[in-house]
């Protein structure tokens, strides 16, 4: 039975009383703040007040205690999870400004109220940063207005794009909201193409929408826009052929050839490799594809440079022939070596003239030629070592190659399908610095692991057909006084604030850290603008601009009231990945724990007026210690649990690259009870009823053997755990089995039964799946299933041999806070 809300904790949880060997409290290290920059002294420049609508001055932030600042005693309030997703806080802005603000799903700040000074920010002990999802899928209009204009209006001084938060001094002059320069309104901006009226520039779409896309004129092009160019680089060693992945890739490509983003100029090419590199001549006029083998991998050259990348429309039949015959060509191979480095050098040579996307499929450690690697993993050290070795690359070959690729507008995406150690820490650099993506399918085998194959197929389909932008750059600007100093994500920083993104895709997230360099004393609001310039797959140069406006505050209570706990957690996760690699894993773990402790000390000393016993947090940060504990137990950072090095490194890559909405499910999965779904409170989407069960805490005490519980862990897996005494109706009407004993051990999908219960359950799971780009597999888990351990590992609130329970962690935090 779950306890009623508000049940207090006993002094020790009942399960732990009288147990020998309760873990000792965590050792207290001297604080290693993740965001400790020495406070710098700056002369205060005189800045004129940001001329804003007068309604802001009338807006008192603290007329009454807002819900965000309601005091929560974490040691007593047990059920702190909200029933559904955690909403992002709404910035405290006048209504007319807030309704124009950017969606937090695209652009958000860790603090929705910006401190006036760096000293105030340091005192709050909360990290300041922005999280972006700049190329998120947005259906055209109303969410994404597209403007075609002969001139794009920008500030003459700082080059900010005109946006809803500028002020018009009169019809002919506007004041930039980032540098405060007064600019002239160009004549053609006086005409509003939407209303077809003249003389109302403030009603144009650029002033009415915080997210907008411009079709760029020729001055935004350094060269004619490049065509879509796709190169597929396939491992065909014995190991690769044995996994059966080639059939899946070739079949998926055959099915998606007509849906690849592009136009009549789209080009495609193929390279396969083992100990040698094989090119494919697909020139129009050949009766069949021609294989050309280069065996000298020390001096890579292109055998026929002009016919290896061909126009897809003109040579589609030859491409089809190649895809149909490729899987059979290597079935008898005895080649065990992998010359990945030389294959990548060949790809770079082939793609340099145009730019484009290289998709690499690799199934083992590269063993020949440049970039060859040796295994660095010691399986005996997986659980015991306090600090994990080999999180940084073994060679800089892959990073250097990525930077060369980035300079020629080439991105490399890496698909790693492997049953053994592949050194993702080294190979991943080729994608990280070229703005590519990394996909990882451990223990991949078409026959032995059909569930993994299904996920690979679904991911590939999305990958091949999703929107793509080429030869992109992104710049983030912010109001004078604020500065950006660290970027997180996959890219290369070309100049201080320009990110080079040879490819941009709708599933890529970015984060930046910020500091306050000059006091923001005379400002009521500050603004942030991200501008992404890219070439669409149809060859149009486009600029997508997102602008966000936030209030400036000078009281600690206002700073805390505007804290976005999920954005803070996401930024800290990225910072901790960097810390793990540059310092050590234990250092990163200490820094995350200290982030929770320090912010609660600051809240206690600077915001709370009445001191009372317990571990006190403002309601807006009540989930912070839980999220930090979840991070400490996440594959990227956990210790004491056997974790393969590649699994750990992949989790770190995802933490740095996933947009916040997908990241949070990885950090803190969602648990729902499914055997008693009803239509009460359900959503109605396209005439389909979607039940909305409440979220449960991640603790075994929320499970019982009579129920069925769904654990949603994000982009890779969902687990449906079925209790031994599960409701017979659910077994029959949803799972299609007569009783628990007949439930198969490795079931991966729900049968489509013509029952209300089946329809409800499938509708809910489909709805969850549709909210993310990639296809999480459904594993139906019995008590005897080997996957039960994976399900239970996500029970973050429970104690394990090597990690504290949530309650014990709270006691540790409290001990530090009340010192």
UniProtKB/TrEMBL annotation:
<dbReference type="InterPro" id="IPR006895">
    <property type="entry name" value="Znf_Sec23_Sec24"/>
</dbReference>
<dbReference type="Pfam" id="PF04810">
    <property type="entry name" value="zf-Sec23_Sec24"/>
</dbReference>
<feature type="domain" description="Sec23/Sec24 helical">
    <location>
        <begin position="564"/>
        <end position="664"/>
    </location>
</feature>
<comment type="similarity">
    <text>Belongs to the SEC23/SEC24 family. SEC24 subfamily.</text>
</comment>
<feature type="compositionally biased region" description="Pro residues">
    <location>
        <begin position="24"/>
        <end position="33"/>
    </location>
</feature>
<keyword id="KW-0653">Protein transport</keyword>
<keyword id="KW-0963">Cytoplasm</keyword>
<dbReference type="InterPro" id="IPR012990">
    <property type="entry name" value="Beta-sandwich_Sec23_24"/>
</dbReference>
<dbReference type="InterPro" id="IPR006896">
    <property type="entry name" value="Sec23/24_trunk_dom"/>
</dbReference>
<protein>
    <recommendedName>
        <fullName>SEC24 homolog A, COPII coat complex component</fullName>
    </recommendedName>
</protein>
<dbReference type="GO" id="GO:0005789">
    <property type="term" value="C:endoplasmic reticulum membrane"/>
</dbReference>
<keyword id="KW-0256">Endoplasmic reticulum</keyword>
<keyword id="KW-0813">Transport</keyword>
<dbReference type="GO" id="GO:0008270">
    <property type="term" value="F:zinc ion binding"/>
</dbReference>
<feature type="domain" description="Gelsolin-like">
    <location>
        <begin position="691"/>
        <end position="765"/>
    </location>
</feature>
<dbReference type="Pfam" id="PF04815">
    <property type="entry name" value="Sec23_helical"/>
</dbReference>
<feature type="domain" description="Zinc finger Sec23/Sec24-type">
    <location>
        <begin position="152"/>
        <end position="188"/>
    </location>
</feature>
<dbReference type="InterPro" id="IPR036175">
    <property type="entry name" value="Sec23/24_helical_dom_sf"/>
</dbReference>
<dbReference type="GO" id="GO:0030127">
    <property type="term" value="C:COPII vesicle coat"/>
</dbReference>
<dbReference type="InterPro" id="IPR036180">
    <property type="entry name" value="Gelsolin-like_dom_sf"/>
</dbReference>
<keyword id="KW-0931">ER-Golgi transport</keyword>
<dbReference type="InterPro" id="IPR036174">
    <property type="entry name" value="Znf_Sec23_Sec24_sf"/>
</dbReference>
<feature type="domain" description="Sec23/Sec24 beta-sandwich">
    <location>
        <begin position="469"/>
        <end position="553"/>
    </location>
</feature>
<dbReference type="InterPro" id="IPR007123">
    <property type="entry name" value="Gelsolin-like_dom"/>
</dbReference>
<dbReference type="GO" id="GO:0000149">
    <property type="term" value="F:SNARE binding"/>
</dbReference>
<dbReference type="GO" id="GO:0070971">
    <property type="term" value="C:endoplasmic reticulum exit site"/>
</dbReference>
<feature type="region of interest" description="Disordered">
    <location>
        <begin position="1"/>
        <end position="49"/>
    </location>
</feature>
<dbReference type="GO" id="GO:0006886">
    <property type="term" value="P:intracellular protein transport"/>
</dbReference>
<dbReference type="GO" id="GO:0090110">
    <property type="term" value="P:COPII-coated vesicle cargo loading"/>
</dbReference>
<dbReference type="GO" id="GO:0005829">
    <property type="term" value="C:cytosol"/>
</dbReference>
<keyword id="KW-0968">Cytoplasmic vesicle</keyword>
<dbReference type="Pfam" id="PF08033">
    <property type="entry name" value="Sec23_BS"/>
</dbReference>
<feature type="domain" description="Sec23/Sec24 trunk">
    <location>
        <begin position="225"/>
        <end position="464"/>
    </location>
</feature>
<keyword id="KW-0479">Metal-binding</keyword>
<dbReference type="InterPro" id="IPR050550">
    <property type="entry name" value="SEC23_SEC24_subfamily"/>
</dbReference>
<dbReference type="Pfam" id="PF00626">
    <property type="entry name" value="Gelsolin"/>
</dbReference>
<dbReference type="Pfam" id="PF04811">
    <property type="entry name" value="Sec23_trunk"/>
</dbReference>
<keyword id="KW-0472">Membrane</keyword>
<keyword id="KW-0862">Zinc</keyword>
<dbReference type="InterPro" id="IPR041742">
    <property type="entry name" value="Sec24-like_trunk_dom"/>
</dbReference>
<dbReference type="InterPro" id="IPR029006">
    <property type="entry name" value="ADF-H/Gelsolin-like_dom_sf"/>
</dbReference>
<dbReference type="InterPro" id="IPR036465">
    <property type="entry name" value="vWFA_dom_sf"/>
</dbReference>
């Amino acid at each position: 039975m779950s306890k009623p809300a508000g049940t207090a904790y006993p002094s020790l949880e009942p399960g732990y009383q009288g147990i020998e060997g309760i873990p000792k409290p965590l050792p207290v290290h001297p604080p290693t703040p993740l965001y400790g920059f020495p406070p710098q002294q700056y002369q205060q420049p005189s800045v004129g007040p940001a001329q804003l609508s007068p309604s802001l001055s009338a807006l008192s932030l603290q007329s009454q205690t807002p819900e965000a600042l309601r005091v929560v005693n974490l040691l007593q309030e047990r059920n702190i999870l909200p029933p559904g997703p955690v909403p992002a806080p709404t910035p405290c802005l006048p209504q007319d400004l807030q309704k124009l603000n950017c969606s937090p799903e695209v652009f958000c700040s860790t603090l929705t109220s910006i401190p006036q000074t760096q000293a105030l920010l340091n005192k709050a002990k909360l990290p300041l940063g922005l999280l972006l999802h700049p190329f998120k899928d947005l259906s055209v209009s109303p969410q994404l207005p597209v403007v075609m204009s002969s001139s794009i209006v920008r500030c003459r001084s700082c080059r900010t794009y005109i946006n809803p938060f500028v002020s018009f001094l009169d019809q002919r002059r506007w004041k930039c909201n980032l540098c405060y320069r007064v600019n002239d309104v160009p004549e053609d901006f006086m005409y509003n193409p939407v209303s077809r009226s003249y003389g109302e520039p403030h009603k144009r779409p650029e002033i009415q929408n915080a997210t907008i896309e411009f079709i760029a004129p020729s001055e935004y092009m350094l060269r004619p826009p490049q065509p879509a160019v796709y190169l597929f680089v396939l491992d065909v060693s014995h190991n690769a052929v044995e996994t059966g992945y080639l059939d899946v890739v070739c079949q998926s490509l055959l099915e998606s050839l007509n849906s690849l983003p592009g136009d009549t100029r789209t080009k495609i090419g193929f390279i396969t490799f083992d100990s040698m590199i094989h090119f494919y001549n697909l020139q129009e006029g050949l009766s069949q594809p021609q294989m050309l083998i280069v065996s000298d991998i020390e001096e890579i050259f292109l055998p026929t440079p002009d016919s290896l990348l061909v126009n897809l429309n003109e040579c589609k039949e030859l491409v089809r022939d190649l895809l149909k015959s490729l899987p059979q060509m290597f079935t008898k191979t005895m080649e065990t070596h992998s010359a990945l480095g030389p294959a990548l050098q060949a790809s770079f040579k082939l793609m340099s003239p145009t730019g484009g996307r290289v998709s690499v499929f690799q199934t083992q450690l590269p063993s020949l030629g440049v970039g060859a690697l040796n295994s660095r993993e010691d399986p005996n050290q997986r659980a015991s070592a306090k600090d994990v070795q080999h999180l940084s690359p073994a060679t800089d070959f892959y990073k250097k190659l990525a930077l060369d690729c980035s300079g020629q507008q080439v991105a490399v995406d890496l698909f790693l399908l492997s049953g053994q150690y592949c050194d993702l820490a080294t190979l991943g650099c080729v994608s990280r610095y070229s703005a590519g993506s990394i996909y990882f399918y451990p223990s991949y085998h078409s026959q032995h692991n059909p569930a993994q194959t299904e996920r690979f197929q679904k991911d590939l389909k999305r990958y091949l057909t999703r929107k793509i932008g080429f030869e992109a750059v992104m710049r983030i600007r912010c109001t004078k006084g604020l500065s950006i100093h660290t970027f997180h994500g996959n890219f290369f920083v070309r100049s201080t604030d320009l990110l080079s993104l040879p490819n941009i895709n709708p599933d890529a997230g970015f984060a930046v850290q910020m500091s306050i360099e000059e006091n923001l004393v005379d400002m009521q609001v500050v603004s942030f603008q991200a501008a992404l310039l890219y070439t669409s797959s149809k060859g149009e140069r486009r600029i997508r601009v997102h602008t966000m406006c936030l209030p400036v505050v000078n009281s600690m209570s206002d700073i805390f009231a505007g804290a976005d706990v999920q954005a803070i957690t996401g930024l800290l996760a990225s910072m901790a990945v960097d810390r793990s690699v540059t310092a050590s894993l234990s250092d990163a773990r200490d820094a995350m724990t200290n982030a929770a402790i320090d912010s609660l000390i600051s809240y206690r000393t600077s915001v709370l007026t009445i001191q009372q016993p317990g571990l006190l947090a403002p309601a807006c940060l009540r989930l912070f210690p839980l999220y930090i504990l979840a991070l400490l137990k996440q594959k990227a950072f956990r210790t004491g649990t056997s974790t393969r090095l590649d699994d750990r490194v992949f989790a770190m890559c995802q933490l740095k690259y996933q947009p916040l909405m997908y990241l949070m499910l990885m950090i803190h999965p969602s648990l729902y009870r499914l055997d008693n779904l009803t239509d009460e409170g359900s959503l109605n989407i396209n005439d389909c009823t979607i039940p909305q069960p409440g979220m449960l805490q991640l603790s075994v005490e929320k499970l019982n053997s009579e129920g069925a519980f769904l654990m949603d862990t994000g982009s890779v897996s969902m687990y449906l755990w079925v209790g031994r005494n599960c409701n017979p109706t659910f077994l029959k009407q949803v799972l299609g089995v007569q009783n628990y004993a007949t439930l198969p051990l490795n079931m991966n999908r729900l049968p489509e039964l013509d029952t209300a219960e089946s329809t409800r359950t499938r509708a809910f799971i489909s709805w969850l799946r549709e909210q993310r780009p990639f296809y999480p597999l459904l594993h139906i888990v019995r008590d005897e299933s080997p996957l039960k351990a994976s399900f239970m590992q996500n029970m973050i609130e429970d104690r394990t041999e090597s990690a504290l329970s949530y309650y014990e962690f709270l006691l540790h935090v409290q001990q530090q806070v009340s010192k």
